[in-house]
Amino acid sequence: MHRRRFLTLVSGMTALAGLFPFHLQAQVLFPAPLRKTFRVVSTYPHDPTAFTQGLLFHEGRLYESTGGWGTSSVREVELKTGRIIRQHDMAPQYFGEGLAIWEKRLIQVTWKSGTGFVYDLATFDQLETFSYSGEGWGLTQDQQGLILSDGTNVLRRLNPYSFQETGRIAVHLQGRPLRGLNELEYIDGMIWANIFPTDEVVLIDPASGNVLARMDLTGILGPRRRASPDAVANGIAFDPETRRIFVTGKLWPVVFEIQAVPG
User: Fold this and answer.
1) Is the pTM of the predicted complex or chain greater than 0.70?
2) Which of 22, 26, 79, 149 is within CB 3.0–4.6 Å of 138 for a Cys-Cys bond?
């Protein structure tokens, strides 16, 4: 290329970068996340009155935290039938949210009270309570400890014994903060998160906070089967032994076993 023409081109690009700095940076530094689709492998019955806030799978059973003032609970559920095997009802001043497991203990957070609960996995006896600042939305665990969402774009790491904050993960989608992070599940080195109030699930790199993939669950449950506008997707569980992934939602009558595939 002729030197004068090359300098003219560079000058023009520099001028455009000055006019539209974020747009150009987003194209270069923040590539679009992978779009994943899914296929439904199987379906299982689910209590249609359960306002699902937290979901996990452990040794053949589903464990679920449900929300609502005066209707919140922790449950052990038989997957194939949806039968509630064990249930602990919470005091009416608490609104149940995320649920995680750590060393044979179930750990549950609540929405606005800043109070969490620890239960014995085998008996559901309450072992202790703990406090945290802000709201509690979703909860999961990785090798380092607990991971808490609060509806913002920031995930907080908590020590699973003292429940003190040990770190934060700022989540971004193509360079912009992604708010509404709700129910969480840790799967193969990635944090899966429901985005409230949508049917979208994102896969987050815990090291960088970047969203690396997105999955839209819209259509998995038809509109006629949704009891109310609040019946959005919320609930992700993973069985590491069989590699199965389960999803459900608030007031959904079904738990879906899905397989994620690239879009």
Assistant:
1) yes
2) 149
